[in-house]
């Protein structure tokens, strides 16, 4: 690439230090003479995480770094379980800084605002320094905000869930544009939804119950897309008439479980087993915010994120084909936002914080998500990401928030905003 080089490597070596070192060496194979500005690292929880990071750092050096634990790391080559995925980004047109807020669950709003304020304070680059056209300044946002949260503290208790993530993101958006500059998700873990222990990485240190962010000042065009592949079931809607944080107590003035079962076409026993996904329509854009039902507790529904009374919810449905297609749709939306829909060959980097639930749903067809990506940008374009327990981002023409069963996608183009 002319303006940016991105390398991605992975390793399933059992020794923690060696796994990090091997993955980092593979990533560096694609880096030329450009200045290395950032590293993103995603790892299985099976490793001694401090040793794994030391191994990667022994190759990369002390550049700003963020990352998280996950069940499956993502690279061009596939989804990697019990492995380490390392990416290295090099460009003279990018500046990257990081920050972490500890004890994020104590005051999530403050944690979000504090970390992004600290990271922004370290940025030395003015992305618009060579831009004279006001239309370009209005068209392209100057900063990418990478966000990573802790899952265990975010999902603990009846009123945990996305309540903490939503508050963190409100803190972030108190300082930055609430539109499409935020991309990220909640850390994951080995195994299936244990919610036992997840970790975040920032500048080669390991954190928990923390909010980690990276701010990238970009003179290169970039865009973010957010899609999920679900659609509303016709006639299967209800009004939330009593709710508290992420617990829906009543729909249409009646016990929530009874109405939920009725509009889903299920009896109460099947409802507890199936728990169809609910969606809240976004009147600003054309997007349904998914609310996965984690639990039917008594007559109440415990969903993944906060809900408001007097909001209308709809039962949602999907299939494997739509889930696979939504991967491409998210990428195409990111390309449109980057102004690169006609030049996908200029995509230098694709970042995907993908919901763990999507890949579980697809089972043996999960790899087709990456096939969709390669169809659009080619097999050689650098791809990195991780499987999340909740996603962060702003759908097109909407605002930033916490998602579930969703796939945000970031693209960075090998094309300056001033061209």
Essential attributes:
419 residues; eight-stranded antiparallel beta sheet; six-stranded mixed beta sheet; 11 helices; alpha+beta
Topology overview:
Layout: E1 5-11, H1 16-28, E2 36-43, H2 49-60, E3 65-69, E4 72-75, E5 78-81, E6 84-90, E7 94-101, H3 108-122, H4 134-139, E8 143-149, H5 151-155, H6 162-173, E9 182-186, E10 200-202, E11 205-207, E12 211-218, E13 220-227, E14 231-244, E15 247-251, E16 254-255, H7 256-264, H8 268-274, E17 278-282, E18 287-291, E19 293-297, E20 300-303, E21 312-317, H9 320-338, E22 347-355, H10 356-362, H11 368-377, E23 382-388, E24 391-393, E25 401-403, E26 407-416
Parallel strand pairs: 2-3, 8-9, 22-23
Antiparallel strand pairs: 1-6, 2-6, 3-10, 4-5, 4-23, 7-12, 8-12, 9-24, 10-11, 13-26, 14-15, 14-21, 15-16, 15-20, 17-18, 17-21, 19-20, 22-26, 24-25
CA-CA gap between termini: 16 Å
Discrete helix count: 11
Task: Kindly name the structural category.
Answer: alpha+beta
Instruction: Find the count of extended strands (DSSP E, 2+ residues).
Output: 26
Range of helix content: 25-40%
Q: Mean of the pLDDT scores?
A: 93
What proportion of the residues form beta strands (DSSP E)?
Answer: 35-45%
Instruction: Output the radius of gyration.
Output: 21 Å
Q: How would you sum up the major sheet?
A: 8 strands, antiparallel
Tell the overall outline.
globular
Flag low-confidence runs. 155-159
């Amino acid at each position: 690439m002319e303006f940016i080089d991105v390398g991605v490597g992975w390793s399933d070596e059992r020794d923690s230090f060696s796994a990090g070192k091997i993955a980092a060496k593979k990533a560096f194979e694609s880096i030329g003479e450009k200045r290395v500005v950032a590293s993103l690292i995603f790892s299985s929880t099976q490793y001694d995480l401090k040793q794994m990071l030391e191994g990667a750092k022994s190759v990369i050096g002390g550049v700003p770094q963020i990352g998280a634990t996950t069940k499956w790391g993502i690279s061009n080559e596939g989804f990697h379980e019990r492995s380490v995925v390392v990416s290295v980004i090099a460009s003279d047109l990018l500046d990257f800084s990081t920050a972490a807020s500890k004890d994020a669950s104590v005051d999530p709003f403050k944690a979000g605002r504090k970390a992004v304020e600290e990271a922004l304070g370290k940025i030395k680059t003015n992305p618009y320094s060579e831009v004279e056209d006001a239309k370009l300044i209005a068209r392209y946002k100057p900063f990418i905000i990478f966000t990573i949260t802790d899952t265990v503290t975010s999902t603990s208790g009846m009123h945990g869930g996305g309540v903490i993530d939503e508050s963190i993101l409100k803190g972030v958006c108190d300082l930055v544009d609430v539109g499409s500059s935020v991309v990220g998700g909640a850390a994951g873990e080995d195994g299936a939804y244990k919610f036992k222990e997840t970790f975040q990485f920032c500048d080669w240190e390991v954190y928990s119950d923390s909010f980690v962010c990276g701010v990238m000042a970009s003179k290169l065009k970039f865009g973010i897309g957010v899609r999920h592949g679900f659609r509303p079931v016709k006639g299967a809607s209800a009004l939330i008439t009593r709710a508290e944080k992420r617990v829906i107590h009543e729909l249409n003035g009646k016990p929530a479980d009874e109405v939920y079962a009725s509009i889903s076409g299920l009896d109460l026993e099947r409802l507890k087993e199936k728990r169809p996904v609910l969606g809240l329509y976004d009147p600003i854009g054309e997007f349904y915010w998914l609310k996965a039902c984690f639990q039917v507790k008594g007559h109440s529904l415990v969903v993944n994120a906060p809900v408001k009374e007097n909001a209308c919810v709809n039962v949602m449905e999907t299939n494997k084909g739509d889930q696979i297609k939504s991967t491409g749709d998210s990428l195409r939306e990111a390309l449109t936002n980057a102004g690169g829909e006609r030049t996908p060959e200029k995509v230098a980097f694709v970042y995907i914080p993908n919901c763990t639930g999507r890949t579980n749903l697809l089972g043996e067809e999960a790899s087709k998500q990456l096939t969709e990506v390669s169809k659009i940008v080619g097999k050689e374009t650098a791809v990195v990401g991780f499987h999340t327990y909740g996603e962060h981002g702003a759908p097109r023409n909407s605002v930033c928030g916490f998602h579930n069963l969703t796939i945000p996608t970031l693209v960075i183009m090998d094309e300056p905003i001033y061209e």
